[in-house]
Design brief:
single chain; 459 residues; mainly alpha; Growth Hormone, Chain: A; 16 helices; 80% helix; globular
Length: 459
């Protein structure tokens, strides 16, 4: 086990390359969160309620595939390591699946369209996204055990993820308009974006290095595979993993329901769908700037406290937008505050998940980067799926009709609930859970103990 080893191979390049992985992931993930429901309802002519139900049911399959992929990663042995080979193997299938996602045959009947949506959604999310995102998520814990370096890697990950999100939010609708502003235009747009995702993953693969070995590894650096049953049981003995899985599920439920209704909020509450670029552009740009400044706050105050501050700021930003009257200055101020708040979470949450791997190894003797991250992935996918399904259900109950130029009062209320009030409730739940997270204070002692075990096993 490598203890507190700083990244030594061209730090800036390696950190940037690590972040490129989430840039690639977010090309499809952000599109699914922000535009997929809009594409289905307004271009492909598919019921939002039916699609939301498909997304929710698909999370059952997602949970199975995440655990399977986590086990596969933990058992992968190659000259490239445990996680990196999967970035190379899956980058092209990832891009192809994204294109298929936005290629619903518009001439088909309603039932045939729903079958197509079910198959392509599960191909993308359940199979291919899982096969590339689970190993990518495990990579942080395999690169270093230095808590500050993990935070810096997490910052680069989220800076590049935010760049991916920003790019998708800024260029998707203009690209669609450029290609003809019809259903086929979405396919062409995601062909271009898919090529960009492939390039990002190839950079991620080429310039990152796996260094960390389990404390139980012998002199040759190889450890025995952890039995699946024991690995899963060990997860539920890891209290901090349980907390972070719950937080991720809630946080990504927020992403699913808030991100998916941004375009509806801009169009039907603020009166101009083009404002989605302004809202998301400022929101994401300030995240990029904020995460570089937050690194020192993390070092001084700890990951948990910085994350908690971010939840408070995000809540304030939401309330300003809801009650500020919808003027441009209000939109800008709200987006700035929300961006800083989200930067706090982005700079910390993935490093916190990596820290739970070391706690789990210290507590149970089993180190399972793949399984820990796959189970967390299941948690946040469940959250995102519930968010998308809940959004579809609430919009349906509110009477939203995509073809209507003007929505009813109840439809507008349903959009406000999805965009503002449910996210605020989710922030409060995350804040409460984090009050019980004390790993920041315990971490140095845990690493020192693991170092002693590793030295003993290698004699």
């Amino acid at each position: 086990m490598e203890t507190k080893e700083k990244l030594t191979f061209n730090k800036i390049l390696e950190r940037f390359s690590y972040g490129c992985g989430d840039f690639g992931c977010n090309i499809i993930y952000t599109a699914m969160s922000a535009f997929l429901m809009f594409y289905y309802s307004d271009y492909a002519g598919v019921s939002t309620l039916a699609v939301g139900s498909i997304m929710l049911v698909s999370r059952v399959f997602d949970g199975i595939s995440d655990i399977i992929m986590g086990i596969i990663v933990d058992r992968t042995k190659s000259r490239f390591g445990k996680a990196r080979p999967w970035l190379l193997r899956m980058c092209i299938p990832f891009a192809v699946s994204g294109i298929l996602l936005f290629s619903v045959p518009t001439g088909w009947g309603s039932t045939a369209k729903l079958v197509y949506v079910f198959i392509t959604y599960n191909l993308t999310s359940t199979v291919i996204y899982t096969a590339i995102n689970v190993p990518y998520s495990a990579l942080n814990a395999l690169m270093t055990q230095d808590p500050y370096e993990r935070s810096v890697l997490s910052i680069f990950r989220n800076v590049l993820a935010t760049c991916g999100t920003l790019m998708i939010n800024l260029v998707t609708l203009p690209l669609v308009k450029f290609f003809g502003d019809n259903a086929a235009a979405w396919t062409k747009a995601f062909f271009v974006l898919g090529l960009l995702a492939i390039v990002a993953f190839l950079i991620n693969f080429a310039f990152c290095k796996e260094r960390v070995k389990p404390a139980s590894a012998g002199a040759d650096g190889v450890a025995q595979d952890v039995p699946v049953g024991k690995g899963i049981l060990a997860l539920f003995k890891n209290k901090y993993w349980i907390m972070m899985t719950c937080v991720l599920a809630l946080f990504f439920l927020y992403y699913g329901i808030n991100g998916g209704t941004t375009v509806y909020y801009a169009k039907d509450v603020l009166g101009d769908e083009n404002l989605v670029s302004t809202i998301n552009g400022i929101y994401n740009a300030i995240q990029i700037i904020g995460m570089f400044l937050i690194a020192q706050l993390v070092k001084k105050y700890g990951k948990r406290n910085v994350f908690s501050i971010g939840l408070i700021l995000a809540t304030i930003g939401m309330l300003i937008l809801e009650f500020g009257g919808g003027t441009m200055p209000v939109i800008v101020i709200s987006s700035l505050i929300r961006g800083v708040g989200n930067a706090c979470g982005g700079a910390t949450m993935w490093a916190m998940v990596s820290d739970t791997i070391d706690y789990g190894e210290w507590k149970t003797g089993y180190r399972t980067e793949g399984l820990v991250n796959s189970a967390c992935s299941f948690g946040w996918k469940i959250g995102n799926g519930v968010g998308s399904a809940l959004m579809g259900l609430i919009l349906e109950i509110g009477g939203y009709v995509g073809e209507n130029a003007v929505q009813t009062a109840s439809a507008v209320t349903s959009i406000r609930i999805c965009f503002v009030w449910i996210p605020i409730a989710l922030f409060a739940a995350c804040f409460l859970i984090l009050r019980f997270y004390n790993l920041d204070n315990e971490f140095s002692g845990i690493i020192a103990d693991l170092q002693e075990r590793a030295a003993s096993n290698r004699k």
